[in-house]
Amino acid sequence: MLRSFFSDAASGAPLRGGRFLEIGGVDGLVESNTWVLERCLGWRGVLVEGHPLYFERLRRQRPNSLNV
Predict the structure, then answer these.
(1) What are the residues facing 46 on neighbouring strands?
(2) What would the pLDDT profile of 34-43 be if each residue is shown by its tens digit?
(3) Each residue of 13-24: pLDDT tens digit?
């Protein structure tokens, strides 16, 4: 998936410094669709989680994201 959707077409290098929005961020790690993008490729973004217990975990585990 990284090569197909998140790589430069000309060079094949992974795209760095992108932006993301993840709705249903849960705790920020388990089943996260954006953790690798943030951790390995320097992406920044917004994580949305409505459950108070999960939100506190999300806030602690993903402090570099905007957590809502």
Answers:
(1) 21, 66
(2) 999 999 999 9
(3) 989 999 999 999
